[in-house]
Structures are given as C-alpha cells and as structure tokens.
Amino acid sequence: MAQDAAPQAAAEQPVSAGEIIVTARRREERLQDTPVAVTAVNAAMLENKAAVNIGDLTGSAPNLLITNQNSGAAAANLAIRGLTYADVEKSAEPTVGVVVDGVFIGTSTGQFFDFFDIEQIEVLRGPQGTLFGRNTIGGVINIRRSKPTGEFGGKVEVSYGKFNTLATRAVVNAPLSSDGSVGIKGFYFHNESDGWYRQAQDGSRRGFSNNENFGGALRVAPVGSGFEGILTVEKQVQKYDPVVSNLTRTGEVFCGLIPAEQCNRNNTTDLYTVFGQANVGHYSAPSATLEMNYDAGDVTLTSITGWRKSKENQTQDFDGSSVDLYYVRRLQNYEQWSQEFRAAGKIGSSLDYVVGLYYFKSDYYLAQYSRVFAFAPTVDPLVYDTNPQQVNGSTRSIAAFGDFNWAFADRWRLSFGGRFTRDKKALDNSFGGNLIGAGQDTFKKFTPKVGVDFRPNNQTMIYASWSQGFRSGGFSPRAGTAASASQSYRPEVVDSFEVGSKLELFDRKLQFNVAAFYSKYKNLQQNNTLNCPSCATGNETITSNVGSAKIRGLEFDFTARPSSQLTITGSMGLLDSKFKGFIVGGISPVTGAVVPYDYSKNDLIYNPKMTASLAADYTVPTSFGEVIANLTYRYIGRYDQQISLGPISGDLVNGPIIVNGNDPRVRTDKQGLVDASLSTNFTLAGADAKLTLFGRNLANDRGPTHGFTVGGLWSFGTAREPRTYGATLGVKF
Fold first, then answer.
1. Above 90 in pLDDT, residue 401?
2. The domain 21-721 is classified under which CATH number: 2.40.170.20, 2.30.110.10, 3.30.230.10, 3.40.50.300?
3. Which of 94, 233, 601, 731 has its CA 20 to 30 A from that of 468?
C-alpha cells in the first residue's frame, strides 16, 4: 500500500540545526510535527530572558498562568486553559501537573521550580492524563534537567539585584570512566532576598526567603549497550516569611477589633505595606529519581522511579493585622513514591506506540495549632492550642495506559489511546486527639483520547482531537464536623475538543500555530466556607462538587527568524468561561438558616479573558564575542483568585440567593509586564563568560497575586513582585 513509507516521511521532517525536539507524547518529535498544543522553551531562551523560576513562564505560553502561593513552601498556583485548583493542602492534588525528569510532583508545594540547569521546558495545554501521571486535566509543565555529560566542565553563576537579592548557582560535570560512559554531575543553588513588603510599624523589609537546592546525578551509559541509567539525588531547604497583607473591610468581624487604618485598604498599592506579626517557615525536601532506558532495537524500555519527602514547620499571621486574632503554626509531613514502566516502539512502518503501567502512593500528616482571639502574641500556638487540628491522609493509585499513532493513509495519521486509573484515598480529621470524622473511598475511570492529523504539504499540519481528563475525588482536610470529614467529593471530568494547525513558512523562518478548544467541565471541585458553630473559628471549609462549567478559547503563537541575528516570538490566548448549576448551602442574612446560594454568575478563578506576550532577541557579533538584547512584554487580563461572596440578590429569606460575582478584593487587575535584559558573551581566563543586566516589571505594575476572604471574619492578600533589576555574571568551562 501507499502508506508504507510515505506517511512517516510526510509526518517526520528532517531535523535541522537549532530545531526544538519535544517529548510531549513520550516520543522524540519535532515541535511542529506534534499534533498537540505545546510550547517549548529551551535553555538558551531561558538565559536570554534572564528567567529565574517557573513563574517567569506566565504569559509566555497562551492561556498559562503561574503565581506563587506563599501559604506553602515553593508552592505554585497553576492554571492552563482556565483549569486550576489553588490550594496548598497535601490532600488536594494540582489540576496542572508539574513533571520533573519524568516524575509527577503530587502537591502544589515544591512546584515553584528554579530554572538553572534546565535543558528544556514543555508546556502542554489541555488534558494530558493518558501519558503524564495523575490528575493533569488542565495540562502539564514538563521539565527536563541537563544530564551528566561524561566530560569535565560546568558553569558557575552569581546574581545580585534589588531587595538584596543574591543568587549563586553552580553545576560541575566530571567523567568517571575514560570513555565518558560513566559521568557525574554535582549542583548547588542558593537564592535569598529581603522581600518587597514593608512593615508599617518600623519600615523594615518583610517577606524574606532563603532557598538552597543541592545534589548530584550519576549517569551510566556503556558504549554500544543501548542502556542508559541516571540516578539523581537532591535536597531543597527553604526558610521564608509567609507574610500577608490586610484586606479586611467594614462589616467583617475582625475590622471591629483592629486599628481603623488597617481596615478598608485597597488591593493594589496598599498590599506592599503590612502590619502583622513575624512569621517563619522551614521546609526540607529530599528526593531521588532513577531513570533507566534500554534500547532493544524494535522497542525501548523505560523505568522511572521517583521518591520525594517533605517536612514543613510554618507559622503565619493570617489576619495580617497588628492585633493577635488568628495566628497558626502548621506542622506537615508528606511522602510520595511513584513507579512507571513504559515500552515504546513501532509495529511495521505505519504504527508506533507507547504503553505502560504506573503506580503512585502518598502519605500526608498535618497538625495545625491556632491562636484565635488570643491577644497573646508571645505565646507559641504549640503551647496555646490544646485542641489542635490533626489530619492524616493517604493515596494509593494504579494505572495502565497506551498511546498509538497509525499512519493509515498518505499524509494522514490517527492517534488514539487511553488510561485506566484507580485511586484509593483515606483521610481522618481530629481535634485534640479526638476523632471528628474519617473517610475512605475508591475512584476509578477510563479516560480515552483520539485525534487525527493531516499534512497537505511539508509546511502544514492540521489536526483535531478529543481527550478526556480525570481528577480524582477525595476528602476535605479543613472539615470541622463528622459529617463533612467523612463525606467524599466526586472526581472531576473534563471533555476537551480541539482543532489546530501548525505552519512553517518562508523556508522555516516563520512558525505559526493556532488552536481552538472547547472544554466541558463536570463535577467541579470547589472550596466553600460554611457556618460551623462548633468549630473554633465559627466556620469550616469543605470541598464539594458544585455543578459544571464550559470553557472555550483560541490560542496563537509564533516564532519568526527574519535574520540570523533576530528572533521574535509571540503568543495570545483568549478564554470565555461560564459556570452552570453552581449551587451550595449558605446562611441567610435575614433568618440565619441554611439556604441555597447560586454562584453561577461568578467568574471561574484564574481565568483571564486574555493573555499575550511579545518578545524579541537580537544578537550583535563583536570583536570579543557577542551582545544579546532581549525585550519582552506580557499582558495578563484581570482574573479572580477565589470563589467568594460578592453582591447578592434573589430570595434572601428562603433562597435561592443569587451571588452576582466574586468579592472584588480577590480580583487581580490587568497586568502589563515589561522585562528586559542585555547580555554580553566574552572570554574570561580562557573560559566562556556572560554578563547580563536585567530588569523585570520595569513599568512597576503593582497589584495582587492572591486574595482570600474568610466567611465574613477577615480577608487577606499577597502582592506580586514590583520593579526589580540586577546583574548576573556567569562562567562556563
């Protein structure tokens, strides 16, 4: 038949110098040959942009939003295509998966990743549950670090900037065999900052952080054996100040207990002045990853073993005022272990496949000691609270998956596959050692995917796909009653439909991609704060399934290389989302009875209607090396960060009470972020050196990254990084 060799030739164009190769489908493919919406950023791009951490990706890919959640160590709030779940509790798995060297990170803690020593980052948009671990209904950020080279060499970098920010990083490679088949890599990263908040009482800096990450990797790849094994062992240690700003307003209980100037503050410029007590968080997270690959000719076998453990001890003044109203100490332990086996290969010339098995387990413990209306700022919550909340949780998950490509006709490919997942979860909730409630449940689902792509010529690919995503159910760790603690919430399911095209024009000097998608989001899991007379704070936060949502959008991205010296990249994402049937119980403001509240008019959280970016890199050769200039503009439309109670109407006595939007204090204003860097490459003592001057948020666009209201008691928020600048000196040898 005609499809024996031609389809592969049409679908797989030859790789040219500088071409980006991605593993979005667990296969090595050219970016433009991959029939999924993916944005790839390699090491050179990150260096040119002077990117520091995963948050710098915000706006660089369509419909991607990443913010730092300071209620947890190195914690991230991630949203792709409007799908997110912003919470630091270990029992709540993220909606967007972060995968590092093939290992899925099971909590939002530890996801705010440093960018030094990164080989490539891939942002995969839309459900990715078939191939990438668990609960990735929004998408995946796939991070691949550099491998040990088997040769002596390395790089060292030191950076200093505003807010007394100091970063030192080093990676050193060395051979352990004469032929380079055995090599070792050691790395050490340090980053510290005084923070960008000011304490109102004395003008001192708040929000400090001190982060250390260190470890080593061993690579064994005997020449001619087809085997490669990489063992990476590392540890992250962080000390930080999880400061929050006061957003309490008139009508909330805490406003009547704090000085008047600390109430009714705005959620933009006022966020940078804080009043609360000193906090400190300590985080320690060792981890290990073992990846083994064996190329047996017709099939490649892969095993990835991942282990991660974390320990946290954090105090936090959640009320954000100078009065001791709600101060906590949170002690947390978390451990995860995962194992994945994959086989990838071809059957004949027209069918290739990836099949595998996956196992994941995690265990979680939380003890929260609280001072509520204590007015005793010198008493440690460990001493004050004789009735602490204690939570134990566990997850056991198994899965089997398969993904297939069939070149069924000339220039046509059919992609299909699926994943069967079975999760077993348990959680118990106690106060002062007395069990409040416990629950155990099993959640299972088969999630299929199917797609087709067509290449009318070697410069154009058109594709369409349907995929289903599954995010497991669970239990509410902040429940305060037996009924709430023992009641599980159901899994979320997303059906995503997508059509797109990838174009290579003008002899590959322009790559242009467009995608349109429509997502049906069922059984949404949302946190809701409810009245609880028996709880210490008078309320409890439970997670429940609250209806459905529809999300549709358009995405564009391009890379243009008009000359060898100039590269221009850009992207735009448009979102339109709407709740349906979002009804939960609440308290009538007239009778105090529980009545239905309809939140269907509220905006979905972390859903900006538009994100966009435009960046230019220009390289000028010089007598001593080259100079590289980068200028980037990122636009992020306004978005809400919490489902909350805004203006209400309807039947205030019997319900339903109509909620007409979220509280405006949990809304981020639109952002226009201008970043720039100027680098020069030169030789220093025989080594390649690079000096970079950088500035981020040069327009000093100030505002919130996070806002939260707590059941009529108080509200708080956090601020995004204001204008900052600095210099970096790096040496490669």
1. yes
2. 2.40.170.20
3. 601
